[in-house]
Amino acid sequence: MNDPKSALPPVAGSALDLIGRTPMLEVRNLDIGPCRLFLKLENQNPGGSIKDRVARSMIEAAEADGSLRPGGTIIEATAGNTGLGLAQVATLKGYKLILVVPDKMAREKILHLRAMGVDVRLTRSDVGKGHPEYYQDMAQTLAQSIPGAIYVNQFANPANPLAHETGTGPEILAQMDGDVDAVVVGVGSGGTLTGVGRYMAAHSPKTQMVLADPVGSILCDYVATGTYGEAGSWIVEGIGEDFIPDNAQMDLVRKAYSISDRESVDTARLLLRKEGVLAGSSSGTLLAAALRYCREQTEAKRVVTLVCDTGAKYLTKMFNDMWLAAHGFDQRELHGDLRDLIA
Ligand code: PMP
């Protein structure tokens, strides 16, 4: 007789012990050309996103170097998921948390943060780096004005890519039995790209890092030309940039795809209908790029991409036909097998 407990993880002593070791799912029902495509389900972290890993890593690094003392205040600029991860760690470890969040972010994320007792300061989404109301500038100024406060700064904090170099990267290679041809990632802070990319460079040099970037972000241009101009805007949350974060080691990128909001939304909806995975908007961008990459191959490649967060946070936005119509999505032409899926 099989012992039903033998395949189950042990009882955890803290939600923090449930971070990482996320499952891998093979895609079965999408057109992936000659390839095999696998999804690492980061939405299954306890806070619902890939950012749980870096929240724990950055707080533990600040504790270790003495900058964060018991009862101290943590301040961060975040689109939401890093904030949720930080809220979980801060609550369990007894720190105060102030988050500066751009006002374009999903209400579900903000309500979730408020429910966790976080002091959320909303700021403008329509201003760029250097403006006092830009979310990162605002967080930095705030940290300087509060004694004992630390500004986490996921965009430059080395404990961010380190969490992926020691966690996400090794897990991917192990789950793929050491055989991965490409990993498709997005860049928000650059932590995933840099951490997974460094690990693959050291342990699986054949693995190509592929960038999925929203149209409007400057990162694709930067990969192609080494320079960039003014950023546009996009509705996908958590990825795409108007600058190159210190944590984004862009020379790790071998190939880059610029993905429209339309394609990201359609692909996230397709993932839900065809594979049963309710994923967030950035996962739509990553999967769209992964599908393009797979279909371009002439040989069978083993490709991995990430489901960065759960789509439950976006039910009132990209999974809502009324919201899509209000944002002009119904006026654009649908293509291929997506036509019948968007009523
Ligand atoms: N997807 C989502 C939903 C995110 O919140 C983030 C982080 N901002 C990313 C992807 C990008 O990850 P990274 O910060 O490691 O570049």
From TrEMBL:
GO biological process: one example: cysteine biosynthetic process from serine
Domain of life (superkingdom): Bacteria
Cofactor: pyridoxal 5'-phosphate
Name of the protein described by the UniProt record: Cysteine synthase B
Complete-protein stretch covered: 1 to 343 of 470
Keywords assigned by UniProt, alphabetized: CBS domain, Pyridoxal phosphate
Organism whose genome encodes this protein: Caulobacter flavus
Gene Ontology MF terms: transferase activity, transferring alkyl or aryl (other than methyl) groups
Similarity comment text for this entry: Belongs to the cysteine synthase/cystathionine beta-synthase family.
